[in-house]
Amino acid sequence: MAVAFGVLGLKTVAWWLTGSVALLADALESVVNVGASLGALVALILAGRPADANHPYGHSKAEYFSAVLEGVLIVLAALLILREAWFGFQAPRAPDAPALGLAVSAVASVVNGVWAWVLFRRGRALRSPALLADAKHLQADVITSAGVIVGVGLVALTGVLWLDPLLAALTALNILWSGGVLLRDSVGGLMDEAAEPELIERIRGLIASTAMGALEAHDLRTRHAGQVTFVEFHLVVPGEMRVTEAHDICDRIEAALRAAIPKVVVGIHVEPEGKAKHDHAPGGARPVSQFG
Q: pLDDT tens, 50-108?
């Protein structure tokens, strides 16, 4: 939040010094950064709450709502910027004090770039949709700001005034694209999309290497809920196997998955041989030795 407010202040000063529509567009995007940071903060606080009677699976999906909110704010900012660009085309003007304004904007971009790198590192380490969404937005902001700085500099050097609103419009289109991608990814999380193919294959390998004594694994299902990964599957064991033996196999599989995947929740449905019920989930039924 502190970084977002600081960058907004710097970019507002840069616009005030120059009167550039493109720098105004850059400042308007930073308004979104402030709202997005606040949304991410609230979402992270909610997501950190433990499971309760009304939310037995926890509150981790709150992070996706933050990411969706950020996507919506980005789209709204892009529309506002397009409006300002249109007015700029109607009455183009040369920027005032371009050197000082661009220097201030450059400082703001460096701050944003460093903070985006920090958020990417923490977001990946924590597998946090809210932090990663904020990092992607800031990364797009840095790229946009770099283009604006170059463009406004060209306006000052060449005197071609329509370049300023043109850059503002291009900035808006870039922001609109990044907002659309963010919305798509966030809605995918709310719709319980499966884990990444690489992670699914890793899960299969762990099950295959630790399920000695079982006969078959099938109907593997995965999904992410914020930082939590849910893994469910059916495990077929010999009909004469004792319950305690089947339970030991499940414990061994769960321990391996928890050691390899942070914040994983595992559900195993044990079935005796001859009573297996295949729900035809993706992946099909395979002997445990071939599940990996």
A: 888 888 888 888 888 877 877 787 787 778 777 777 877 777 766 777 788 888 888 99
Return the amino acid letter for 66: S
Same domain, 141 and 252: no
Contact (Cβ atoms closer than 8 angstroms) between residue 105 and residue 31: no
pTM confidence score: 0.65
Q: Catalogue the long-range contacts made by 254-259 (C-beta closer than 8 Å, 24 or more residues apart).
A: 255/210, 256/206, 256/209, 256/210, 257/203, 257/206, 257/207, 257/231
Token readout for 24 is: 């105004």
Q: Report yes or no: 112 and 5 within 8 Å, Cβ to Cβ.
A: no
Same domain flag for 39 and 74:
yes
Q: Are residues 39 and 145 in the same domain?
A: yes
User: Which stretches does DSSP call E strand in 119-227?
Assistant: 216-225
